[in-house]
């Protein structure tokens, strides 16, 4: 849940009663509740079976996790700035370039379907999946992508000795 998506009353309720709610959820399910200034998350544990969860056991989830690592690097290096509400707005072209770079650097480790996918289709597939899981919001009128704070909670990487991509050659 993001503060900007709901009412102030809902978020204030979470702020004051979230700890108690979190304790009850954690006792009932294998999960953890995280409440921040502008967002709240329910992070499921390995044995939690509450509907669909991310990451799934599939190639697209792995690709998203790799993208999150690259996004996090951009934010930590101050190339991309975060806003007071913990969101990060970036130009759509710049965001798409990052996704293309992930495909170039790590694509040899992707399943054949994603490895052979045309660049434009790859960018659309990854962007749509990120939006579906509320990791980003498209602002088409402004040609902006708003990256949600949940991206900073997750990331993936290949092992240090991975040599399948061009990243090692740079």
Structure write-up:
It is built from 5 helices and 5 strands. The chain has helices at residues 8-28, 59-76, 92-106, 112-115, 119-132; strands at residues 31-35, 40-44, 88-91, 136-139, 144-147. The strands form 2 sheets. A 3-stranded antiparallel β-sheet has the order 3-5-4. A two-stranded antiparallel ribbon has the order 1-2. A hairpin with a 4-residue loop joins strand 4 (136-139) and strand 5. The radius of gyration is 17 Å and the shape is globular. 17% of the residues are buried.
Write the layout of secondary structure elements.
Elements: H1 8-28, E1 31-35, E2 40-44, H2 59-76, E3 88-91, H3 92-106, H4 112-115, H5 119-132, E4 136-139, E5 144-147
Antiparallel strand pairs: 1-2, 3-5, 4-5
Beta-strand residue percentage: 5-15%
* Nearest-integer average pLDDT: 83
Low-confidence stretches: 166-170
SSE pattern: HEEHEHHHEE
Major pleated sheet: 3 strands, antiparallel
Cα separation of the termini = 39 Å
Helical stretch count? 5
**Looking at the structure, what is the overall shape?**
globular
Radius of gyration: 17 Å
The chain-level structural class is alpha+beta
Helix content: 40-55%
What is the spatial order of strands in the main beta sheet? 3-5-4
DSSP, total strands:
5
């Amino acid at each position: 849940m993001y503060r900007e998506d709901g009412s102030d009353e809902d978020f204030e309720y979470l702020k004051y009663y979230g700890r108690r709610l979190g304790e009850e959820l954690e006792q009932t399910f294998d999960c953890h509740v995280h409440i921040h200034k502008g967002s709240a998350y329910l992070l499921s544990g390995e044995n939690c079976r509450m509907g669909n969860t991310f990451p799934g056991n599939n190639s697209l989830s792995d690709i998203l996790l790799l993208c999150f690592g690259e996004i996090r690097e951009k934010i930590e290096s101050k190339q991309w700035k975060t806003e007071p509400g913990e969101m990060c707005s970036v130009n759509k072209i710049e965001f798409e370039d990052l996704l293309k770079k992930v495909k170039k650097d790590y694509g040899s480790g992707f399943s054949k379907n994603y490895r052979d996918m045309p660049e434009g289709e790859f960018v659309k597939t990854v962007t749509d999946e990120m939006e579906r899981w509320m990791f980003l919001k498209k602002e088409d009128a402004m040609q902006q992508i708003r990256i949600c704070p949940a991206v900073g909670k997750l990331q993936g990487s290949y092992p240090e000795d991975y040599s399948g991509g061009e990243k090692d050659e740079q």
